[in-house]
Amino acid sequence: MSRSHDRLSARRATRARLPLSGRGLLSAPASLARRLEHAEALDRMARPLARAVGRAVPAGAQADALHGVWLGQPVHPVLTALPLGFWTSATVLDFVPGTERASQILLALGLAGALPTAAAGLADWSALHREQQRVGLAHAASGAGASVLFAASLLARVLGRTTGGRVLALGGLAAITAGSFLGRHMAFGLGAGASHAEPVAHLAPLGWHDLCRIYELPDGRLARRQLGYLTLAVLRQGSDVMAVADQCAHLGGPLHQGSLSESPDGPCVTCPWHGSTFALTDGSVVHGPATAPQPAFDSRIVEGGMVQVRPARPAQ
Ligand code: FES
């Protein structure tokens, strides 16, 4: 066997023994984010803070606005583009002679954009799972740290300490980059903000399918029924049957265990986990934190009282 082959095998064996965090610099941030998920010590701060946010922004129109129910997707990631864009531009302009005034304006705009961004982020964060909240706490701390550094940078420049202001801006950029990484870990790694009912569209069989006999469904109460791989939350009201995917679009809570209410547009179900409310007629979001609609099913009753369902087309 050649010497180079021996060296290659030895390198592979060493790599296999190394823990994930030891594989290189590039894997270190991901490894840190995963460790944050399990940092139970953060719960001491996260729980009271989540309760305080819940008290400050109770369920209702204001919370819905912050979550992005009106937009059909979480509003926090959209707003994040404002401070991130302004502050990055300001820091880049610091390397372009004669643009100090423009940098100061961009820093101020970033600070103005940071406030609604933080408010929307806090509202979303207060209705997350524990692991997501732990990472979210570090994400928020990075954002707050960046805001302080950019504010200090602006102040230093206004006071004529331009070089110091530029150094502070570089620190702010580092903090906001770290915070952005953690935010993406929450979204892509932990599914915060994504629709947890999205796979339903791929799992629901096309066309009409037998669900159960109508007399097997309790009248006026939610029931759980299986349709192939899918679990549905089903409500019978007399001879009307309404069905939506059981897994809540927000974070997968069991809607069949939710509570029922009436709205002008018909019956609604409220998720037992974080209170998202969906219209049972078409799955549309009535209240957040969910922003994506709940997949709904058309129903009909055929011979022998058999209830059949099929995926409903999204409302136009
Ligand atoms: S899982 Fe959060 S509201 Fe349903």
Percent range of helical residues: 40-55%
How many distinct helices? 9
Tally of domains? 2
Ligands in the structure? FE2/S2 (inorganic) cluster
Query: Runs with pLDDT <50, length 5+?
Result: 12-22
Q: Specify the overall morphology.
A: elongated
Widest sheet: strand order? 1-10-9-4-3-2
Query: Which structural class is indicated by helix and strand composition?
Result: alpha+beta
Chart the SSEs and their pairings.
Layout: H1 3-17, H2 28-37, H3 43-56, H4 61-67, H5 75-93, H6 100-125, H7 130-158, H8 162-189, H9 200-203, E1 209-213, E2 222-227, E3 230-237, E4 240-245, E5 259-263, E6 266-270, E7 277-279, E8 285-287, E9 296-302, E10 306-311
Antiparallel strand pairs: 1-10, 2-3, 3-4, 4-9, 5-6, 6-7, 7-8, 9-10
Helix pairs in contact: 2-7, 4-6, 5-6, 5-8, 6-7, 7-8
The site of FE2/S2 (inorganic) cluster (FES) has 12 residues, from loops.
Summarize the model shown.
The protein is an alpha+beta fold and 316 residues long. It has nine helices and ten strands. It has two domains: 152 residues; 112 residues, Rieske [2Fe-2S] iron-sulphur domain (Rieske Iron-sulfur Protein), CATH 2.102.10.10.
Would you give an account of this structure?
This protein has 316 residues and is α+β, with helices and mostly antiparallel strands. It has two domains: 38-189; 200-311, Rieske Iron-sulfur Protein (3-layer Sandwich). It is 48% helix and 17% strand. It has nine helices and ten strands. The chain has a six-stranded antiparallel beta sheet with strand order 1-10-9-4-3-2. Strand 3 (230-237) and strand 4 form a beta hairpin. Helix 4 crosses helix 6 (100-125), helix 5 (75-93) runs antiparallel to helix 6 (100-125) and helix 5 (75-93) runs antiparallel to helix 8. It is elongated, with a radius of gyration of 25 Å. Residues 12-22 have low confidence and may be disordered. The structure holds FE2/S2 (inorganic) cluster. FE2/S2 (inorganic) cluster binds at residues 248, 250-253, 271, 273-276, 289-290.
